[in-house]
Amino acid sequence: MNVDFNKNPDGLVPAIIQDNTTNKVLMLGYMNAEALKKTIDSQLVTFFSRTKQRLWTKGEESGNVLNLVDIKLDCDSDSLLIKVDPKGPTCHKGTDTCWNENNVTTYGFISTLEDTIESRIKEADSEKSYVASLFAKGINKIAQKVGEEAIEVVIEAKDDNDTLFLDESADLLFHYLMLLQAKGFKMNDVVKVLNRRNK
């Protein structure tokens, strides 16, 4: 790995730390050539501390180390993306990330949709919310709706209308997300099962 440590006068390059499982960005640190070498040799992420003016292995006092998984160099050879398996919170303030975010896997719009479903269930306004009205009918009705949508997906898959197939697929996924929450689960629980099967 040919890192351009000479691009900055202090000989440091930014090192973006990302959780290998959740893909959350945990923190930003700086490395010089010696810190990078120590990181690779020890398999524990080590920075050059600009305040302490010395090498600093993350977690050397707290025990909240960052186990090295992978290192990628950017296109200009002057910044690093370091994938890690964190042990404990990353931020010195005790939070998962230095941006005060929870280090959990999210699925973009799917996670947003799950949050919307959850809030509609809590509001329980069955006159204004389709989700709340379906939940008011109980889990059997939600499960039945998933079955109906699955059949419609199969029917549309056998035809040539891609728009209808995608519409029915969206309906199936939406109702499946509701069924998961009716059973006390979310998409991440299903992904965990898939990950276990992948090993």
UniProtKB/TrEMBL annotation:
Name of this protein: Histidine biosynthesis bifunctional protein HisIE
Pathway involvement of the protein, from the record: Amino-acid biosynthesis; L-histidine biosynthesis; L-histidine from 5-phospho-alpha-D-ribose 1-diphosphate: step 2/9; Amino-acid biosynthesis; L-histidine biosynthesis; L-histidine from 5-phospho-alpha-D-ribose 1-diphosphate: step 3/9
Similarity comment text for this entry: In the C-terminal section; belongs to the PRA-PH family. In the N-terminal section; belongs to the PRA-CH family.
Database matches in Pfam families: PRA-CH, PRA-PH
Source species of the chain: Winogradskyella pacifica
GO biological process, one term: L-histidine biosynthetic process
Keywords: Amino-acid biosynthesis, ATP-binding, Cytoplasm, Histidine biosynthesis, Hydrolase, Multifunctional enzyme, Nucleotide-binding
Domain of life: Bacteria
Reaction(s) catalysed (UniProt annotation): 1-(5-phospho-beta-D-ribosyl)-ATP + H2O = 1-(5-phospho-beta-D-ribosyl)-5'-AMP + diphosphate + H(+); 1-(5-phospho-beta-D-ribosyl)-5'-AMP + H2O = 1-(5-phospho-beta-D-ribosyl)-5-[(5-phospho-beta-D-ribosylamino)methylideneamino]imidazole-4-carboxamide
Enzyme class: hydrolase
Residue ranges occupied by any Phosphoribosyl-AMP cyclohydrolase domain in the UniProt entry: 27-99
CDD domains tied to this protein: NTP-PPase_HisIE_like (cd11534)
SUPFAM superfamilies: all-alpha NTP pyrophosphatases, HisI-like
Chain spans, region Phosphoribosyl-AMP cyclohydrolase: 1-109
